């Protein structure tokens, strides 16, 4: 089973809702997924340096809006070193409303699950409502 962590920059209700939907899908799909909230598993304000190694050991993937994980040298090295798979959602300058974020993740859910089988570490960024790019 692959764990998918939803970062705390998303509402934890998104993780809860996706977990309910995914439990239903797991009954029919060959590869199983569990959806968790970083906030609920590791606590409010958990440092990336604390949860990234754990998620890496679990061969988990993370969905986040925190582009600093990719652009800050220490965090970039951390997720690479621990073999984490990351999906970044670049929000518009005024941010996403809750419902817009739900729509963005749901629209890409099947693709996220397929790409989660990619060789780790990996990172993909959803740049806007239709583009995805692989990050090095």
Order of helices and strands: EHEHHEHHEHEE
CATH topology: Rossmann fold
- Give the strand tally: 6
Helix content bin: 40-55%
- Uncertain runs with pLDDT below 50, 5 residues or more? none
Write down the domain tally: 1
The span between the termini is: 26 Å
- What fraction of residues sit in β-strands? 15-25%
Mean pLDDT: 92
Strand order of the largest sheet: 2-1-3-4-5-6
Shape: globular
Note the main sheet. 6 strands, mixed
Identify the quaternary structure here: single chain
What does this structure look like?
This protein is of the alpha/beta class and 136 residues long. It has one domain (2-135): Rossmann fold, CATH 3.40.50. 45% of the residues lie in helices and 21% in strands. The longest helix has 18 residues, at 98-115. It is globular.
Quickly describe the structure:
With 136 residues, the chain is of the alpha/beta class.
Could you give the topology of this structure?
Layout: E1 2-6, H1 12-26, E2 33-37, H2 38-42, H3 48-57, E3 61-64, H4 68-71, H5 73-81, E4 85-89, H6 98-115, E5 122-126, E6 132-135
Parallel strand pairs: 1-2, 1-3, 3-4, 4-5
Antiparallel strand pairs: 5-6
